[in-house]
Design brief:
Elements: H1 2-30, E1 32-41, E2 45-48, E3 57-62, E4 66-75, E5 80-89, E6 96-105, E7 108-123, E8 135-154, E9 158-179, E10 188-189, E11 193-210, H2 211-217, E12 231-247, H3 250-259, E13 264-265, E14 269-289, E15 292-310, E16 319-323, E17 327-340
Length: about 350
């Protein structure tokens, strides 16, 4: 009898351990939510200089279609969140054109965003020696952000976020030039030039919202705006506005001198204001089966950025001043799919 009892207790120990581990795993899984999504921007149109009325530069950007893959893991007990987004272009190897990773604790997130802007620049004016077109470019850009989610930001029911960010970027640009025969009150335009690498570093205020994703992240939000059958209109906006330094490249300055002989550039850097917006609007449907939720939608997306540079006036004869405001716009139809479990 004693031997049977010892066998029973020896069997009870691993069984209890298995039960305890299973209980811990189930408890942990109950506190974890997984999110995933796919967005598809198709047949996007690009344009440069839409705000500054650039006349001579045309940018053809790659790719025309992008698939965005999103994934996030949230632990509800301590509020830890980990996530990654990837933009995959349409070439044969599916190159990743942009990645965004973030980590959050509670309502505070740190986000690192890195991407590549590639394409071709065309120039319809006098070019400097050695400049050949189409000009192939591939430039990296970086955003580093600290953001805070507010679950009742707009009207008391729609989540949104605010934050602070840093941006580093570079792109080809058309730069207008200025000259004067007396002082800065008598400035007039001189010959524009092609800048192969206009760079900038800016510090920005950030705010935004995404009612499509928020309806899955915060299930109790925006029910007032939902139509019968789980349908609703979705809106997204991601904005940043700030200031920093813009800079011309040595190659750009050499081109400026060549197409404007006898004039000397007054500077190679400026105080710059940076504005960026990415917005979309469309129709969304949401449904669920138990803990599994799914949302699908379609709409239209618009993205643009604009840089306005200050300083660089031609103040006396012989000065070559600058008037540069690079900007770009992309727009096209978008479809989205999101799941939570």
């Amino acid at each position: 009898m004693e031997r049977k009892s010892s066998v029973f207790y020896r069997a009870l120990i691993p069984a209890s351990a298995v039960f305890f581990v299973t209980l811990c795993v189930n408890t942990a899984l109950a506190a974890i939510n997984l999110y995933g999504g796919v967005s598809r921007l198709s047949g996007a149109s690009w344009s440069a200089g839409f705000m500054s009325q650039d006349k001579y530069i045309t940018l053809e950007s790659d790719p025309a279609s992008v698939t965005k893959i999103e994934g996030m893991l949230c632990e509800s007990k301590i509020g830890l969140s980990l996530g990654v987004n990837m933009d995959v272009d349409d070439n044969l190897v599916g190159e990743v054109a942009r990645t965004s990773t973030y980590i959050g604790l509670g309502d505070t997130y740190l986000r690192y965003h890195k991407g590549t802007h590639a394409g071709r620049a065309l120039w319809n004016a006098k070019a400097a020696t050695g400049q050949k077109f189409p000009f192939e470019f591939q430039e990296e850009y970086i955003h580093v952000d600290a953001i805070w989610w507010l679950k009742k930001m707009f009207g008391g029911f729609m989540p949104g976020y605010v934050g602070l960010g840093y941006t580093s970027m570079a792109l080809p640009a058309e730069v207008k030039t200025l000259k004067t025969q007396s002082d800065l009150t008598k400035q007039k335009f001189a010959a524009p030039f092609f800048e192969p690498r206009h760079t900038g570093k800016y510090y920005s205020f950030i705010f935004g919202f995404d009612t499509f994703a928020s309806s899955m992240l915060f299930l109790d939000t925006m029910k007032e705006a939902e139509l019968p059958g789980g349908f609703s209109i979705f809106f997204t906006a991601s904005d940043r506005f700030g200031f920093g330094e813009s800079r011309l490249s040595p190659e750009g300055l050499a081109a400026a001198r060549e197409v404007n002989p006898g004039l000397e550039p007054v500077t190679d850097h400026f105080f710059g204001a940076y504005l960026e917006n990415e917005s979309s609007i469309g129709l969304r449907w949401r449904g669920h089966l138990g803990r599994f939720y799914v949302a699908a939608g379609a709409g239209y997306e618009l993205m643009f950025y604009s840089i306005t540079n200050f300083g660089g006036a031609a103040q006396k004869p012989g000065d070559l001043g600058f008037d540069s405001s690079p900007n770009m716009m992309r727009h096209g139809p978008i479809v989205r799919f999101y799941a939570r479990w």
